[in-house]
């Protein structure tokens, strides 16, 4: 069984920059986060290892979500909520207290610019 507690493995690195922490897998920052936002990026690769790296980051840093695949579609489970990727390769989540939700378009644009 694959290890899911820390983001590590082939072509994986973690770095901090300008208040953001980034978990990179190959050439894509698959998870970028800071206090209020989490940005999940597939880089167009909806692959098991990409999903694994996202879940490793969520576990290691206590981000409050899990990425799963349901009927071929990727979704994020966060505090009893289901947030679907809807075919998008980037999903921006807003963290407020103990809850996580999909960021509004304005919040998402702000987070993407900052990251």
Pick out the low-confidence regions: none
Q: Compute the number of strand runs.
A: 9
Number of helices: 2
Distance between the termini: 33 Å
Helix proportion of residues, in percent?
10-25%
Structural class: alpha+beta
Total separate domains: 1
Q: Overall pLDDT, averaged?
A: 88
Order of helices and strands: EEEEHEEEEEH
Tell me the strand percentage band: 35-45%
- Taken from the alpha-carbon principal axes, the silhouette is globular
Strands of the largest sheet, in order across it?
A: 1-2-3-4-8-9
Radius of gyration: 13 Å
Largest sheet: 6 strands, antiparallel
Describe what you observe in this structure.
The protein has 115 residues and is of the alpha+beta class. The protein has one domain. It is built from 2 helices and 9 strands, in the order ββββαβββββα. The strands form 2 sheets. A 6-stranded antiparallel beta sheet has the order 1-2-3-4-8-9, sandwiched between helices. Strand 2 (20-25) and strand 3 (28-33) form a beta hairpin. The mean pLDDT is 88.
């Amino acid at each position: 069984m694959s290890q899911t507690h820390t983001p590590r493995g082939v072509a994986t690195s973690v770095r901090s920059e300008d208040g953001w922490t980034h978990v990179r897998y190959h050439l894509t920052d698959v998870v970028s986060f800071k206090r209020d936002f989490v940005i999940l990026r597939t880089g167009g690769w909806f692959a098991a290892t990409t999903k694994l790296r996202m879940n490793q980051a969520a576990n290691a840093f206590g981000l409050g979500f899990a990425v799963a695949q349901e009927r071929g579609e990727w979704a994020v489970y966060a505090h009893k909520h289901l947030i679907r990727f809807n075919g998008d390769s980037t999903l921006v989540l807003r963290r407020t207290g103990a809850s996580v939700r999909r960021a509004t378009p304005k919040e998402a644009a702000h987070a993407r610019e900052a990251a």
